Amino acid sequence: MYAQVVEGSGKGVKSAKDMSPEELDFQSKIDAGQKIEPKEWMPEGYRKTLIRQISQHAHSEVVGQLPEGNWITRAPTLERKAILLAKVQDEAGHGLYLYSAAETLGISRDEMYDQLHSGKAKYSSIFNYPTLNWADIGAVGWLVDGAAIMNQVALQRTSYGPYSRAMIRICKEESFHQRQGFDIMMKMCRGTDAQKAMAQDAMNRFWWPALMMFGPSDKDSVHSAESMAWKIKINTNDELRQKFVDQTVPQAEYLGLTIPDENLSWNEEKGGYDFTDPDWDEFFQVISGNGPCNAERMRARTEAWDQGAWFRDGLSAYAEKHAGDNANQGVKDV
Ligand code: FAQ
User: How far is the CA of 146 from the centre of ligand 1 (A)?
Assistant: First the structure.
């Protein structure tokens, strides 16, 4: 394809004639489907774009624990509690794989946390919406993990080796998460009228934010062109959103739930559903920090960080005290 963006700016692409021999070689590896590994040469823009996307993805996993964690103590049965606890732990694990993948690009974990806590780095818009009742936990698993996995399945083929490998493992777990959410919804939809009404209410509130997870429409996506040239992204935002709608509508029908979109209709010609765009003004408000729970989420993360200071200090002091131990032990053994 030989189209490459300058410095991760999102402003333009470099044609082959403007590329250095290193850039040409790099792009030909990408075009041939080869993975790029941490110690290989890479354009600065590629590195920066990956750090931005992978760290924001990691932050999303970590902040994403909050709306679900909110229901661990109130799950309706012991079994549901154990399942939810395991799911929330999985999300922490996903954050850790992703932070590790980003670290291979030369950024430290402390810097990434700092970017999150200072509001410089984004995390997925969806986690700025509240989980008001148990049906919301079903909707998060079904719709939010469903949207996340739609994106992440494609990202298994992303060009950066450590990111791609992290995605393979994450996808296995996310597909379990999606099914547990669907299972909660199924139980509620087959329950009393009041339970079914709760499921419908959760669907009504989570549908639009779930569509927003794929990012702005392609015409407003700043990074898609460059990220796709570098195979950091495999699909555009709109392509994935369409796939998600096409996959989810039959599932909603099976549950007997109504998707809150009067314009939803099957389009024979395109082989997919037509649907209404989410409210993009709301999306931009949420990603600018003005969503319903942005302040609460940030407060929870910064408080956790501050409250963990004594533990981090203790670990550092212990490591310092025992710094020479292994080396000394080695000398003794000899
Ligand atoms: N929320 O030019 P584009 C999960 C920002 S994991 C907030 O289109 P790009 C698991 C974007 O950063 C969910 N910000 O950007 C789970 C950029 O701003 P910047 C997370 C958003 O990067 C489930 C600006 O808008 N998944 O849920 C959003 O090419 C349940 C322009 O947008 C990933 O992160 C948004 N929704 O495409 C956990 C997947 N959309 O950075 C717990 C990896 C866009 O210049 C419970 N990421 N923005 O300041 C991606 O695939 C991409 O980054 C996109 C955005 C598709 C999200």
Answer: 15
Whether the model pTM is above 0.90: yes
Ligand 1 proximity of 287 Cβ (cutoff 6 Å):
yes
* Ligand 1 geometric centre to CA of 70 (Å): 23
CB 173 within 8 A of CB 270: no
CA distance 210 to 197: 20
- Which atom belonging to ligand 1 lies closest to the Cα atom of 224? 29
pLDDT recorded at residue 15: 80
Q: In sequence order, which residues have a C-beta less than 8 Å from that of residue 198 and are 6 or more positions away? A: 133, 134, 135, 188
Q: First and final CA of the chain: distance in angstroms?
A: 57
The SS3 call for residue 3 is: strand
The per-residue DSSP string of 299-329 comes to: HHHHHHHHHTHHHHHHHHHHHHHTTTHHHHH
Sign of CA dihedral 94, 96, 97, 101: positive
Tokens in use for 322? 């025992």
Mean pLDDT by groups of 10 residues along the chain of 334 residues: 44 74 94 95 97 98 96 96 97 97 97 96 98 97 97 96 96 93 98 98 98 97 95 97 98 98 97 98 97 97 96 95 73 50
| Longest distance between any two alpha carbons in the chain, whole Å | 77
Exposed/middle/buried for 77, CB within 10 Å: 0-12, 13-18, 19+?
exposed
Kindly state the tokens that stand for 164.
């791609």
Q: Which two tokens stand for residue 319?
A: 């490591």
Contact 226, 8 (CB under 8 A): yes
Helices 161-189, 193-212: axis angle to 10 degrees equals 160
- Ligand 1 binding pocket mutation candidate from 218, 223, 280 (most atoms within 8 A of CB): 223
Identify whether the C-beta of residue 88 lies closer than 8 Å to the C-beta of residue 72.
yes
| Helix, coil or strand: residue 160 | strand
